[in-house]
Write a structure and sequence with these properties.
GO terms for molecular function: 1-acylglycerol-3-phosphate O-acyltransferase activity. The chain has 278 residues and is of the alpha/beta class. It is built from 9 helices and 9 strands. It has a single domain, classed as 3-Layer(aba) Sandwich (Glycerol-3-phosphate (1)-acyltransferase), CATH 3.40.1130.
Length: 278
């Protein structure tokens, strides 16, 4: 049997499955997203090397330009509120909620200038994705070795002030799509207090109305992004970190529940006043 008829038949079968099965459509869209990440990372890496010659935070603007195009493939729209709070020319720690693999699109949609992220060390070895993250100045931490992670954070605290950097951290520490926020880890807040820089919370509304890994659906939708007022840390010490974490978590959780929409049994969506199930 010739190869091309087999490939054509397989492609037709895949298209048929996508049309008939919501799960097949979900996995096809996720696969496309992963393929886009790898392909765009390879191209963006080349552009970054040609433009800046190596690792620098300036590469983030190039990466952001590429990633922002992803939303057109998926019919996603980002409604950003009070973005000017991210644009102030001062170092700060930005904290946001972490829901899924799609968070990268949301991050790049509002990423301010001279902003780097903190990521787990395993991502560094993810082929072209790890390369583009390295070239963009991302700081990698080994979460299995707390002493190493603390050293990286201490160095970062000095560099963010010296080089006027903003640092973006997901304080939940892992992806979370349960309709609420997980408790926050304290690393981002220790960093802000150590550097005596403000914390700027950024809240993304729930993706649940258009992206759900449990029910296997992935459609178009709108994400509301609310940038909250900066929380100052000037004069605070390590002893103030627990209260700082609590203040930030409460503010972000209240905003998350207010701006999110959750699907009902018949497929309609509830308004912002309806809280997701805990």
């Amino acid at each position: 049997m010739e190869l091309w008829p087999c490939l054509a038949a397989a492609l037709l079968l895949l298209l048929l499955l996508v049309q008939l099965s919501r799960a097949a459509e979900f996995y096809a869209k996720v696969a496309l997203y992963c393929a886009l990440c790898f392909a765009v990372s390879a191209v963006a890496s080349l552009v970054c090397l040609l433009r800046h010659g190596g690792r620098t935070v300036e590469n983030m603007s190039i990466i952001s330009w590429f990633v922002r195009s992803f939303k057109y493939f998926y019919g996603l729209r980002f409604e950003v509120r009070d973005q000017h709070r991210l644009q102030e020319a001062r170092p700060c720690v930005i904290v946001s909620n972490h829901q899924s693999i799609l968070d990268m699109m949301g991050l790049m949609e509002v990423l301010p200038e001279r902003c780097v992220q903190i990521a787990k060390r395993e991502l560094l070895f993810l082929g072209p994705v790890g390369l583009i993250m390295y070239l963009g100045g991302v700081f990698f931490i080994n979460r299995q070795r707390s002493s190493t992670a603390m050293t990286v954070m201490a160095d970062l605290g000095e560099r963010m002030v010296r080089e006027n950097l903003k640092v973006w951290i997901y304080p939940e520490g892992t992806r979370n799509d349960n309709g609420d926020l997980l408790p926050f880890k304290k690393g981002a807040f220790y960093l802000a207090v150590q550097a005596q820089v403000p914390i700027v919370p950024v809240v993304y509304s729930s993706f649940f109305s258009f992206y759900n890994t449990k029910k296997k659906f992935f459609t178009s939708g709108t994400v509301t992004v609310q940038v909250l007022e900066a929380i100052p840390t000037s004069g605070l010490t390590v002893a103030d970190v627990p209260a700082l974490v609590d203040t930030c978590h409460r503010a972000m959780r209240t905003t998350f529940l207010h701006i999110s929409k959750t699907p009902q049994e018949n497929g309609a969506t509830a308004g912002p006043g309806v809280q997701p199930a805990q």
